[in-house]
Amino acid sequence: MTSRFPLSSVVVLIGANIVPVLGVLFLDWRVFPILLLYSLENIVIGFYNVLRMLVVPCNLKELRAHSEGIHNKRGLILFFCLHYGMFTGIHLLLVIVFFGLGFLDEQLAGPPGGGPSGPRPLETVQLSWIGVAVACLLVSHGVSYVQNFIRKREYKRVDAKKLFFQPYARVIVLHLTIILGVFAVMVLGTSLVALILFVVLKIVADVIGHLRERKKFRKPAPQTT
């Protein structure tokens, strides 16, 4: 009997999340590059959720009864893109304003010894490496999409309306973990130990969220019409 534990997607997920550790150790990353990466991951999560919504069934009777102005799955997907897009856009903007423009303590957001007269966090981020990290997250979420959602036929056990809300639960847990991590960095300073602890907290939250999602998607979906 094949194990239900999604080993391959968990391994790839952990591997993708190791990239910020390498950034801390070798690229002088501090809080802002890590937060920027995690904010961009919200977009990756939304992208794959749209792909999921495209292939799952949709209970049109229930949708029309509870969603005023939305009459089909296409309308639900467009509304998700608008609603989730505003959510992720505002979050990304806040991260850039408060951490990337130097409005917060430079010791927290910038490179060691940067000081008020030193370079601001936005000027110290290697965007090419952020791009590499985002690409790794795209691969990680893509592996989960193919291995679990398609090959293990999770798409048969969930409907589009339920998927509309799915990313928010994961993102909220992620944000709470980030808040806890930033608080730890504020207390401990931008030491390597504090920053790596920050990343480890996020990895643990990601793995737990991933496994809960797999368990949730093993339940049968409501009947569609």
Poorly predicted parts? 107-117
What is the chain-wise order of helices and strands? HHHHHHHHHH
> On the 0-100 scale, what is the average pLDDT?
81
The number of E-state strands comes to 0
Molecular shape: globular
Distance between the termini: 34 Å
The number of distinct structural domains comes to: 1
Report the structural category.
mainly alpha
Main β-sheet, in a few words? Answer: none
What fraction strand? under 5%
**C-alpha-based Rg, rounded:** 19 Å
- How much helix is in the residues? over 70%
Please report the number of helical segments: 10
Describe the structure.
The structure is a single chain. Mean pLDDT is 81; it is low at 107-117. The protein has helices at 7-17, 19-26, 31-55, 60-66, 73-100, 106-109, 121-124, 127-151, 160-188, 192-216. The chain is built from ten helices and no strands. Helix 1 (7-17) packs antiparallel against helix 10 (192-216). It is mostly helical and 225 residues long. The chain has one domain. The chain is globular, with a radius of gyration of 19 Å.
Short description:
With 225 residues, this protein is mainly α. It contains ten helices and no strands.
What's the SSE blueprint?
Layout: H1 7-17, H2 19-26, H3 31-55, H4 60-66, H5 73-100, H6 106-109, H7 121-124, H8 127-151, H9 160-188, H10 192-216
Features:
single chain, 225 residues, mainly alpha, 10 helices, globular
